[in-house]
C-alpha cells in the first residue's frame, strides 16, 4: 500500500521492500527499539522476547518450507535438536569457537533435513508429513543412543563466547539472539524476492505445472528442506548456549506441532505471519501459565489438577477458533484491517 | 463492514491479551505489610507425570497456606534478637513437563524475586542449572538424578539440592536388607540371591544402577544378572522375564510404577513364577492402582515408599488425610503425599535457617549458604547422594546429613500394601 | 522358539487393537479425506468412559461396554459437528492441523474430567495363560486379539459389501457429484466419525484390559498412522493388515533388536518401516494408486 502520489516506475522500485523514506525511518526506529529493549524492559520481558525469538527463527524456517514451498514438516523440533547438540559438542568437546560452530550446526541440521526430505521428491502432502514425523522420532532415538551426546543423561556446554566476550547475562544473550533473528528474517525476506523464492512458490502452487515450465522441483524441494532445517539448526545452537544443558526431552513432538500451529495462526506464506504467530502463541502460553494458578487459588474446588488441565484446553481452543474463523492467519487479518482503514470511508 | 468488524475484534482481543501480560507478571502487588519470602515452583501438572506432580503440588500449596494461616515461619532475627514472623509467598505454575515452559517459568519467577526454585522435572533441572548458578538461586530438584546433583567436573552442584534419597540410595538400602535379613530367613544353604533388572530405556528407568551399586551387590554376595529393557508401554514382558528366569533369577528389580510395574507382575504370574521370583519396586507410589491392575500376581511384591510425616498425630496431617481422601479416594493415604510434604518441610526448614542466619530480607545466596552450613542439628539431606553407605536408611549419624522423611519398606499382601519395616527419621526440630 | 511365539502373540494382540483403530482412521479418510490425528484421544476418552461406567458407577460390564460405545459415538459426532464441519472446503493442511490441535484439546479434556490417574478394569476375564509351544500367552491377550479381529472384521465386511460403502466411496471422490446423485454427504461424514468414535472406545477397552488405562493411550493413536500407511491409505483390508503387521514387527524388533542397540527401538521402529514403504511403495500394500493430473 503506497501512499497517495507514489508510483513505481521501474522493476526495482516495484520489488522494493522499503519504498519511501518513511519506511526507512520506521525500520531504523524499530531496530533501535529492539536493540535498546534491555534498557527499559525488565528481566522478565527480556527473557520473554528471547524465548519468542527462538520460536520466530523456527517459524520463519518452517514458513519457508511449508508456507512458500508447500512441504509439510512436523519434525522441526528434532532438527533443532540436531543443531543444538552439534553446537554443544563442537564447542564443549572439540573446542571450536562459537562463531564457527553456529553455522556448522545449521549446516548439519540442513543436511539432516535433506536426508529426511529425500522422500519429498517422490511423495507429498500427508505422506511427507509422516516422513517428517518419523524423522522426529528417529532423530531423537539416535541422539539418545550415541555416546558423544551423553545419551539419556544429557550433556552440558558453556555459554557462547565471541572473541573474548562471554555471553552469560540475560541481556547479552538477548542481543545475540535478537541479532541473529534479525539477520535471518532479513535473509528470508530477501530470499523470497529472488528467483529461488519464485521457484518455491511455483512448487507450492502446482508442482507438476512448475516442472512442465522447467523448474527442477526435486532440486528446489531439497533446497527448501535444507533452508528450513538450517534455520531450525541455528535456533537449536542458540538454545544450547541459552540453557547450557541439553537433554533429548527438550525437543518433543509437541514443540514441532506448535511451530506448525504458529505459522498457521500467524499466516502462512507471509513474512509477518510467523513473527505475529510466535508472539501470540508464546504470549498465550505465558498468560495461561500465569492465569491458571491464580484461577485455581480463587476457586479452591478446582484443585491443582483441574486448573492446569484447562491450560492445554484453552490453548487448543484458541487455535481451533483461529482455524475456523481466520484460517489465513493474523497476517491476513492485519492486511484486511489496514486496507479497510486506508480505504475508509470507502468499502474497497 | 462485517469483515472489518471481525478483524477489529481480533486485534482488540490480541491487545487485551498483551495488556493482561503486562499487568499480570507485575501484579503480585498485594502490598504485604507482613514480611514475605517468595518461593517459586514449576511442576508438570499436565503431561507425562501429571499424577505425581499434582499430588506434590497440592500438598505443597496446602502446607504453605496452612503455615501462613498460623502466622508463617517463626524465627529469631539475628540483628534485633526478637522473634519475628515471615510468610511464604508460594508462586506455582504448570510446565506440562516441557522444558521450554519450565525455563520460561523460572525466568518469570526470578523476575518476581524468588529466593528458591522448586523444580519437578529432570530435563527442566538440567536446563536451569547454569541459569540458577548465574542468578544465584538454589534449585530444589524434586527428583534424585545424579546428572543434576553433580557438575560436569564431578563436584557437588552448589545450586541444586534434593531432599530425597537418590534412587541408588534406596536400592542400596534394599540390597542391604535383602542380604542381611531376607536371605538368611528364606534361602536354603548354598543358594545365592540372583538379581536382575527389568526396566525401560530412559534416564529414569536406568537411574537404579551405577558402578557402585554393582560393587555393593558383589560385596553383599548377590549375583547381578544384568539389565534388560522392555518398552514403557509394553503390555506383556514374559519374554524378558523368561530371559531372567533362564538365568536363574530369584529377584527382579524395577524403577517404574504402574502400569509398567503391574504388567511386569502380571508377566511373572503368567509364567507361574510367583513363588520363586520376587519383584522389588523401587518406588511403590500409587500402590492401589498397581495392586488392582496386577491383581493376584502382585501378591508378595515388595517396594519402597516415602511417607512424610503423615502418620504423626497432628491436626494438619488429619486434614491432609481428608483432602487426599476427597480428591484421590482410591489412594492409601499412607504414601501418596509423602514427597510433597517433604519438599514443603525442607523449604520451611531451609528458609528458617536462612532467616535465622542472615535476617530479613534474604537472597538466594543466603538460602544456599544456610543449607550448606547445616551444623548437624539442621535436618535435610545434602546435595551429594552417598551411594550405598551402609545404613543410609538408618539415619544413625545426623552429622552426615539426614533424610527428613520417613521411609518404609512395603509388601503387597492380600491386595493391599503393608509396611514391613518402617524407619523413622528425626522430625524437624526448629518449631 | 518360545521367545518368538511369545513376541508374536503379544504383537498380534497389540496389532489387533492397532487394526481396529486404523480401521477407524481409514474410514474417516475414505469418506471425507480428513486425516484424523486425534484417534488416540478417542481411544483414551472411550477407555476412561467405560472405566467410569464399570468401576465408578458399578454397572455390569456389558452395560458399561454399551454405554462406552454410545459415548464414543457421541464424541465422534460432536467432533464432526463442532470442529470438522466448519472446515469443509478448506486446505487439506488446515484440516490436518485442526485434528492435531483437537488432540491437544481432547487431552486437556480427559485430564480435566478424570485427572491423570492410571486406572484399571476389574477382572472380567478368566486369569491364567495358555502354553503355546513353550511360551505362556495370557488368556486376556488371546481374548483381546480375537475380539479385535472380530470387530474389525464385522466393520470391514459391512463397509466393503453393504450398500452404504458405495455411497461412502462416492462421497470420497467428489462431494458435489455425490450430492448430485442424491447422497447426503453430511450424513455420511457424521456416520463415519461416530463409527470411528465407537470403534476407538472398544479398542480402548481392549487396551485397558491388557495394560491398564492411563494418559499414555493417546500416543497409541500416533502409532496407528504408520500402520495405515503400510496397509494402504484407502483400503479397509489394508488397515487391518497394516495394524497387525506393525504390531508384530514392533514386538519382534523390541525382542531381537533391542539387546543389540541397547533398548528403546520400539519407539521408532514403526516409523522406520513406514519410511521404507513410503520410499519404495508409497501406496502401501493394498492401497489405490493415484494418478495426478494437472
Protein topology:
The complex is a heterotrimer of chains A (348), B (431) and C (294).
Chain A: H1 11-15, H2 21-40, H3 43-68, H4 76-94, H5 98-117, H6 126-144, E1 155-156, E2 161-162, E3 165-166, H7 170-191, H8 195-205, H9 207-213, H10 217-243, E4 245-246, H11 253-266, H12 272-298, H13 303-325, H14 329-343
Antiparallel strand pairs in A: 1-4, 2-3
Helix pairs in contact in A: 3-7, 3-8, 3-10, 3-11, 3-12, 4-5, 4-6, 4-10, 5-10, 8-9, 8-10, 11-12, 11-14, 12-13, 12-14
Chain B: H1 2-26, E1 35-43, H2 50-69, E2 73-76, E3 83-94, H3 99-112, E4 116-119, H4 122-135, E5 139-141, H5 146-149, E6 160-161, H6 167-186, E7 193-199, H7 203-206, H8 211-219, E8 222-229, H9 238-246, E9 251-254, H10 260-270, E10 278-281, H11 287-294, E11 302-306, H12 315-327, H13 333-336, H14 338-358, H15 364-372, E12 407-413, E13 416-423
Parallel strand pairs in B: 1-3, 1-4, 4-5, 5-6, 7-8, 7-9, 9-10, 10-11
Antiparallel strand pairs in B: 2-3, 11-12, 12-13
Helix pairs in contact in B: 2-14, 3-4, 10-11, 14-15
Chain C: H1 2-32, H2 39-56, H3 61-84, H4 92-114, E1 129-132, E2 135-138, H5 139-161, H6 163-173, H7 175-180, H8 185-211, H9 217-231, H10 236-256, H11 258-261, H12 269-280
Antiparallel strand pairs in C: 1-2
Amino acid at each position: 500500500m503506497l501512499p497517495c502520489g507514489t508510483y513505481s516506475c521501474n522493476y526495482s522500485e516495484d520489488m522494493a521492500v522499503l519504498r519511501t523514506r518513511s519506511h526507512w525511518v520506521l525500520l531504523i526506529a524499530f531496530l533501535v527499539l529492539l536493540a535498546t529493549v534491555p534498557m527499559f524492559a525488565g528481566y522478565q520481558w527480556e527473557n520473554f522476547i528471547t524465548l519468542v525469538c527462538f520460536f520466530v527463527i523456527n517459524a520463519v524456517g518452517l514458513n519457508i518450507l511449508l508456507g512458500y514451498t508447500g512441504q509439510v514438516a512436523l519434525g522441526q523440533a528434532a532438527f533443532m535438536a540436531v543443531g543444538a547438540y552439534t553446537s554443544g559438542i563442537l564447542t564443549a568437546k572439540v573446542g571450536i569457537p562459537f562463531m564457527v560452530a553456529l553455522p556448522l550446526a545449521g549446516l548439519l541440521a540442513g543436511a539432516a533435513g535433506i536426508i529426511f526430505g529425500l522422500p519429498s521428491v517422490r511423495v507429498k502432502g500427508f505422506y511427507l508429513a509422516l516422513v517428517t514425523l518419523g524423522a522426529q522420532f528417529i532423530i531423537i532415538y539416535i541422539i539418545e543412543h550415541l555416546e558423544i551426546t551423553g545419551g539419556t543423561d544429557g550433556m552440558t556446554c558453556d555459554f557462547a563466547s565471541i572473541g573474548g566476550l562471554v555471553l552469560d547475562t540475560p541481556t547479552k544473550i538477548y542481543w545475540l539472539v535478537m541479532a541473529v533473528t534479525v539477520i535471518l528474517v532479513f535473509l528470508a525476506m530477501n530470499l523470497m524476492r529472488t528467483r529461488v523464492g519464485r521457484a518455491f512458490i511455483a512448487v507450492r502452487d502446482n508442482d507438476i505445472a512448475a516442472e512442465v515450465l522447467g523448474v527442477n522441483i526435486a532440486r528446489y524441494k531439497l533446497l527448501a528442506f535444507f533452508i528450513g532445517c538450517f534455520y531450525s539448526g541455528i535456533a537449536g545452537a542458540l538454545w544450547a548456549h541459552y540453557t547450557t544443558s541439553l537433554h533429548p526431552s527438550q525437543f518433543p513432538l509437541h514443540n514441532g506441532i506448535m511451530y506448525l500451529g504458529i505459522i498457521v495462526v500467524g499466516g502462512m506464506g507471509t513474512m509477518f505471519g510467523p513473527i505475529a504467530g510466535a508472539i501470540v502463541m508464546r504470549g498465550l502460553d505465558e498468560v495461561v501459565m500465569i492465569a491458571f494458578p491464580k484461577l485455581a487459588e480463587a476457586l479452591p474446588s478446582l484443585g491443582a489438577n483441574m486448573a492446569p488441565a484447562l491450560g492445554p484446553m484453552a490453548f487448543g481452543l484458541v487455535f481451533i477458533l483461529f482455524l475456523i474463523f481466520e484460517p489465513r492467519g493474523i497476517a491476513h487479518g492485519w492486511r484486511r484491517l489496514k486496507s479497510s482503514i486506508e480505504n475508509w470511508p470507502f468499502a474497497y | 463492514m462485517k469483515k472489518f468488524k471481525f478483524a477489529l475484534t481480533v486485534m482488540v482481543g490480541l491487545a487485551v491479551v498483551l495488556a493482561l501480560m503486562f499487568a499480570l507478571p507485575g501484579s503480585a502487588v498485594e502490598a504485604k505489610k507482613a514480611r514475605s519470602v517468595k518461593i517459586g515452583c514449576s511442576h508438570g501438572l499436565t503431561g507425562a507425570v501429571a499424577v505425581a506432580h499434582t499430588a506434590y503440588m497440592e500438598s505443597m500449596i496446602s502446607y504453605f497456606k496452612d503455615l501462613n494461616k498460623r502466622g508463617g515461619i517463626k524465627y529469631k532475627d539475628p540483628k534485633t534478637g526478637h522473634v519475628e514472623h515471615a510468610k511464604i509467598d508460594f508462586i506455582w505454575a504448570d510446565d506440562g513437563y516441557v522444558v521450554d515452559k519450565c525455563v520460561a517459568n523460572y525466568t518469570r519467577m526470578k523476575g518476581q524475586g524468588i529466593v528458591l526454585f522448586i523444580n519437578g522435572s529432570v530435563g527442566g533441572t538440567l536446563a536451569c542449572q547454569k541459569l540458577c548458578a548465574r542468578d544465584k538461586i538454589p534449585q530444589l530438584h524434586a527428583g534424585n538424578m545424579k546428572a543434576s546433583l553433580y557438575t560436569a567436573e564431578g563436584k557437588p552442584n552448589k545450586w541444586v539440592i534434593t531432599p530425597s534419597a537418590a534412587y541408588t540410595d534406596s536400592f542400596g538400602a534394599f540390597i542391604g536388607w535383602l542380604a542381611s535379613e531376607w536371605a538368611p530367613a528364606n534361602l536354603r544353604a548354598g543358594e545365592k540371591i540372583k538379581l536382575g533388572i527389568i526396566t525401560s530405556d530412559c534416564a529414569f528407568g536406568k537411574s537404579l544402577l551405577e558402578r557402585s551399586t554393582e560393587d555393593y551387590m558383589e560385596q553383599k554376595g548377590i549375583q547381578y544378572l544384568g539389565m534388560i529393557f522392555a518398552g514403557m508401554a509394553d503390555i506383556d514382558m514374559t519374554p524378558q522375564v523368561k530371559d531372567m528366569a533362564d538365568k536363574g533369577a530369584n529377584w527382579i528389580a524395577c524403577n517404574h510404577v504402574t502400569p509398567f510395574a503391574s504388567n511386569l507382575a502380571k508377566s511373572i504370574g503368567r509364567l507361574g513364577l510367583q513363588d520363586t521370583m520376587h519383584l522389588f519396586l523401587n518406588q511403590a507410589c500409587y500402590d492401589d492402582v498397581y495392586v488392582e491392575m496386577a491383581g493376584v500376581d502382585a501378591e508378595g511384591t515388595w517396594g519402597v515408599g516415602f511417607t512424610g510425616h503423615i502418620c504423626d498425630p497432628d491436626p494438619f496431617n488429619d486434614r491432609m488425610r481428608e483432602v487426599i481422601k476427597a480428591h484421590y479416594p482410591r489412594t492409601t493415604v499412607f504414601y501418596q503425599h509423602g514427597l510433597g510434604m517433604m519438599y514443603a518441610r525442607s523449604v520451611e526448614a531451609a528458609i528458617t535457617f536462612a532467616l535465622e542466619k542472615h535476617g530479613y530480607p534474604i537472597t538466594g545466596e543466603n538460602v544456599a549458604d544456610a543449607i550448606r552450613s547445616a551444623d548437624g542439628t539442621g535436618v535435610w539431606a545434602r546435595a551429594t547422594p552417598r551411594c550405598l553407605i551402609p545404613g543410609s536408611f538408618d539415619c544413625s549419624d545426623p552429622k552426615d546429613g539426614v533424610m527428613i522423611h520417613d521411609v518404609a519398606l512395603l509388601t503387597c499382601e492380600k491386595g493391599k500394601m503393608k509396611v514391613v519395616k518402617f524407619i523413622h527419621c528425626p522430625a524437624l526440630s526448629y518449631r | 522358539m518360545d521367545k518368538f511365539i511369545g513376541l508374536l502373540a503379544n504383537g498380534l494382540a497389540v496389532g489387533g487393537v492397532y487394526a481396529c483403530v486404523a480401521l477407524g482412521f481409514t474410514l474417516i479418510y475414505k469418506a471425507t479425506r480428513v486425516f484424523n490425528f486425534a484417534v488416540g484421544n478417542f481411544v483414551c476418552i472411550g477407555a476412561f468412559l467405560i472405566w467410569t461406567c464399570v468401576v465408578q458407577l458399578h454397572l455390569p460390564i456389558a452395560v458399561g461396554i454399551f454405554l462406552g460405545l454410545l459415548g464414543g459415538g457421541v464424541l465422534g459426532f460432536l467432533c464432526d459437528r463442532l470442529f470438522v464441519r466448519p472446515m469443509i472446503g478448506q486446505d487439506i493442511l488446515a484440516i490436518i492441523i485442526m485434528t492435531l490441535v483437537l488432540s491437544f484439546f481432547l487431552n486437556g479434556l480427559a485430564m480435566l474430567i478424570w485427572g491423570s490417574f492410571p486406572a484399571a478394569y476389574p477382572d472380567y476375564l478368566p486369569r491364567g495363560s495358555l502354553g503355546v509351544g513353550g511360551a505362556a500367552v495370557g488368556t486376556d491377550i488371546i481374548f483381546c486379539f480375537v475380539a479385535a479381529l472380530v470387530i474389525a472384521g464385522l466393520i470391514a465386511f459391512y463397509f466393503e459389501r453393504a450398500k452404504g460403502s458405495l455411497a461412502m466411496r462416492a462421497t470420497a471422490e467428489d462431494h458435489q457429484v455425490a450430492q448430485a446423485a442424491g447422497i447426503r454427504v453430511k450424513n455420511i461424514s457424521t456416520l463415519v466419525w461416530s463409527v470411528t468414535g465407537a470403534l476407538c472406545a472398544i479398542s480402548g477397552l481392549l487396551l485397558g484390559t491388557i495394560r491398564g488405562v492411563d494418559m499414555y493411550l493417546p500416543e497409541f493413536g500416533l502409532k496407528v498412522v504408520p500402520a495405515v500407511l503400510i496397509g494402504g491409505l484407502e483400503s479397509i483390508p489394508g488397515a487391518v493388515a497394516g495394524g497387525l503387521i506393525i504390531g508384530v514387527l514392533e514386538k519382534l524388533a523390541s525382542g531381537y533388536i533391542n539387546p543389540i542397540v541397547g533398548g528403546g527401538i520400539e519407539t521408532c521402529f514403526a516409523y522406520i518401516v513406514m519410511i521404507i514403504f513410503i520410499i519404495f511403495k508409497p501406496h502401501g500394500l493394498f492401497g489405490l494408486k493415484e494418478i495426478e493430473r494437472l
